[in-house]
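Example S7 (structure tokens).
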């Protein structure tokens, strides 16, 4: 649709337009669209909702609107780019700036890019009359907080509402997406992690933070705000799944992910290069498909997926215990890179170097095979048991052998040779191995692979042939 910019509207006309829009329960932008439609003699019903419809079914019929709350962090400058990215995707954006955000960017710059008034004051009488914080909250299909500072997260987790941004967040019924950004020490602080756990349990969705260089010179680590393109893609994903069918509604899905850590002594351990990304993406996709998801996770550096019950474990034996406690399940997906061996003679104290003494010898004992244990359960076996095969050679032959040996229904085979960059990377190339044959999937992101897997699972549960 063509877009039109009207410049030099005086303040009195703007105020009239705001009042008229408020009376009709529309945004100013929608009101102007309606005026133009009328003037052009278009008598068809406009695509937007009527005021009476809006009262009963606001989210279902409204155009896609994001309310972007910009917090006070150096990453606020990236939020201007985010506005542009969202608008490129046909998403209308309204902005709230916190007082701290105004130290980094101005309402003028945000207003110029959104083409809408920018809000910042909870007690602005003109704005309460014109729009009001409750309407700001209700008129959004999605609220994005970017950057979400440690302070904003703490306020949200505790239900504070002492400025416009937090009042709107507390009044919101729409889904909320947070893009945290802060110094790595603030992110890893137990208070922030507590708040993160609370927000996740409250159903808030997280994107990032990413790892990398911080604005402060010499600082790096986990805490960079996700890039505007990543946030825009996540917003699109949320809009896409919002009205999407939920084919796994009522199904219990159990997923293992990440590496396990097997202690050598209290401070050292054996581990592997698994990042947990594929398992986490599967958990997210299963939750988006309406499943009741339990994710048993080894130690990883990833945000907890929204709407998923996460059980954190360290060792293979803890992982097996947690899996057995999480049963029954309709589907179990074993994406964890479980350590095959643990140290049988792990030290109760830190093993010390002793001058002239021989280097310590580690005796290894085999860990339980979690996938095989669950797949061979005489009772309470999940209806569909899926394993991964991480191979560095003879991928297909090894995967077929694993399918038989482990007793599972499907194997997702991937080549994890260092040259593929799959282990720890963002992409995956999978071969689906079943009793009926081998199906190669295209190289794709781990998120897309997860969506594809969930679609296949939904089809299999419906009775379609695999
Ligand atoms: N697995 C498991 N418990 C283990 C080892 C593996 O549940 N102790 C699961 C993995 O989660 C994966 C599948 O078994 O779904 C295959 O894992 P992989 O590491 O490819 O194979 P291994 O069984 O470890 O065999 P090998 O190391 O000989 O390839």
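Recovered sequence:
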């Amino acid at each position: 649709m063509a877009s039109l910019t009207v410049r030099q509207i005086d303040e009195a006309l703007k105020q009239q337009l705001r009042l008229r829009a408020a009376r009709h329960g529309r945004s100013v932008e929608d009101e102007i669209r309606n005026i133009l439609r009328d003037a052009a003699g278009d008598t068809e019903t406009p695509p937007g909702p009527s005021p009476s419809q809006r009262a009963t079914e606001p989210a279902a019929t409204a155009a896609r609107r994001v309310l972007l709350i910009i917090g006070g962090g150096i990453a606020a400058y990236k939020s201007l780019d985010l506005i542009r990215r969202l608008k490129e995707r046909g998403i209308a954006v309204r902005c709230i700036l916190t007082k701290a955000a105004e130290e980094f960017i101005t309402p003028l710059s945000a207003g110029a890019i959104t083409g809408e008034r920018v809000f910042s004051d909870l007690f602005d009488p003109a704005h309460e009359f014109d729009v009001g914080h409750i309407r700001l909250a209700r008129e959004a299909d999605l609220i994005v907080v970017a950057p979400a500072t440690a302070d904003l997260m703490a306020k949200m987790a505790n239900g504070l509402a002492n400025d416009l941004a937090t009042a709107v967040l507390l009044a919101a019924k729409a889904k909320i997406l947070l893009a945290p950004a802060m110094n790595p020490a603030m992110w890893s602080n137990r208070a922030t992690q507590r708040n993160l756990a609370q927000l996740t349990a409250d159903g808030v969705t997280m994107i990032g933070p990413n790892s990398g260089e911080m604005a402060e010179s010499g600082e790096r680590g986990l805490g960079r705000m996700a890039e505007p393109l990543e946030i825009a893609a996540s917003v699109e994903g949320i809009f896409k799944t919002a009205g999407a069918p939920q084919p796994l509604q009522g199904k219990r899905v159990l997923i293992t992910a990440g590496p396990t850590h097997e202690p050598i002594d209290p401070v050292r351990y054996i581990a592997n290069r698994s990042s947990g990304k594929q398992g986490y993406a599967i958990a997210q996709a299963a939750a988006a498909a309406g499943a009741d998801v339990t994710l048993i996770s080894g130690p990883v550096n990833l945000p907890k997926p929204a709407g998923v019950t996460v059980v954190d474990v360290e060792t293979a034996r803890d992982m097996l215990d947690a899996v057995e406690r999480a049963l029954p399940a309709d589907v179990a997906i074993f994406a964890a890179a479980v350590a095959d061996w643990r140290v049988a003679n792990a030290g109760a104290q830190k093993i010390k170097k002793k001058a002239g003494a021989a280097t310590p010898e580690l005796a290894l004992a085999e860990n339980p095979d979690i996938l095989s244990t669950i797949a061979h359960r005489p009772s309470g076996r999940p209806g569909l048991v899926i394993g991964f095969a991480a191979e560095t050679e003879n991928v297909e032959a090894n995967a077929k052998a694993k399918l038989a040996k482990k007793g599972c229904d499907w194997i997702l085979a991937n080549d994890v040779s260092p040259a593929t960059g799959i282990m720890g990377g963002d992409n995956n190339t999978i071969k689906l191995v079943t009793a009926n044959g081998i199906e190669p999937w295209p190289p794709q992101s781990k998120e897309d692979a997860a969506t594809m897997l969930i679609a296949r699972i939904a089809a299999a549960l419906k009775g379609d042939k695999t």
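Notes on this example. Confidence is low (pLDDT under 50) at residues 43-62.
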